[in-house]
Amino acid sequence: MRFMKTFALLELACLAMGCVGCGPSNNGGEAKRLTGGGSTFIAPLFDEKWIGEYNEKGVQIDYTGKGSGAGINDMIGNEADFGCTDAAMSADEIKRAGGEDAVVHIPLVMGAVVPVYNLNGVKDLNFTAEILSGIYRNKITNWGDPKIKEANLEAKLPDEKINVVYRADGSGTSFIFTTYLTAADKDWAAGPGATKQVKVDGGQGLPGNGPLAEAVKSTKGAIGYVELLYALKNPGLNIGKVKSRDGEFLTATLEGVTAAADNALKTFSKEERDTLRYSIVNAPGKGAYPISGTTWAVVKLKHPADKAKALQAFLKWATHDGQASVTDLHYAAIPASIVELADKKIDLISAK
């Protein structure tokens, strides 16, 4: 009897104080934990910056980098509160999520995809869309190919097989890469076109930016494509320059991504502004790095009240205060005009 009275008193005290763990939240009805996943492109930002910074606000963010396709599917299936993707959702994915009025795209960061390769003593190679398309269609199979030599007149290119490495999962990084090839090379545009699923006969397919970077680093004669930070974290990798729409061979930089975003913004259609589903690939203008892209959070509009409030708060923070740390990891911040449009989308998230 004494035990029962003690337990009852503790229970009443817990209810009176609003103890953590006694309900879904204790922060004005806001959930204390959010789950997300998907894009490995943005995973370092969550792991090294945002999770720790936002945890100081008393909310835990759990993020798993598993590929953009998986992030979208987890969001659609209610296995995550938000997904992250480097490829805007397709019409079929939007339909599965409940339709245009059921889900929103919130831009979080912008960044660069770079070709990386492993050739001893050969640095700063120039790549055109035609070369990259030829390699990934098995039309160019040797580093001594005339097309590669033509773009690299001063390089001492070996007579050596090209070992192609690609993303085997549903990848937003692949989508950015193949969207560039589609925009800049007619043969790639004719097939396979822009896709999250790349397949190269005889190549090595791997899930995630990290494993792909490691495979290129450890394979002689290899080539692959990764988000810029993954290349910079692997000193043994060579990063190629890419020919821009204006004919410059450019190394990926924050300034190059920002130039691409600023120039692409000028051409956005009303639909792109309304939906925030757009592309900054192969943008015109001096210094605009051509394989640039956006990572979005994709979020359903209706949630339990505590989750809706927590999602709004996190996404507002990520698109405002959270932008202060993105350049530390070689991402480009979202332009202010896009943030303004994103705020209106975030405000649409509400309780069921």
Summarize the structure.
The protein has 352 residues and is of the alpha/beta class. It has helices spanning 2-17, 43-55, 68-76, 91-96, 129-136, 146-151, 172-184, 186-189, 209-218, 228-232, 254-265, 270-275, 305-319, 336-346; strands at residues 25-27, 30-31, 33-38, 60-65, 82-85, 103-117, 126-127, 163-167, 204-206, 222-227, 238-239, 241-243, 249-250, 292-300, 302-303, 350-351. The chain folds into 2 domains: 30-110 and 293-351, D-Maltodextrin-Binding Protein, domain 2 (3-Layer(aba) Sandwich), CATH 3.40.190.10; 113-259, 3-Layer(aba) Sandwich (D-Maltodextrin-Binding Protein, domain 2).
Describe the structure.
The structure is a single chain. With 352 residues, the chain is α/β, with parallel strands linked by helices. The protein folds into 2 domains: 140 residues, D-Maltodextrin-Binding Protein, domain 2, CATH 3.40.190; 147 residues, Periplasmic binding protein-like II (D-Maltodextrin-Binding Protein, domain 2), CATH 3.40.190.10. 38% of the residues lie in helices and 20% in strands. The strands form 4 sheets. Strands 3, 4, 5, 6, 8, 9, 10, 11 and 14 form a 9-stranded mixed sheet that branches. A 3-stranded mixed sheet has the order 7-12-13. A two-stranded antiparallel ribbon has the order 1-2. The N terminus is likely disordered.
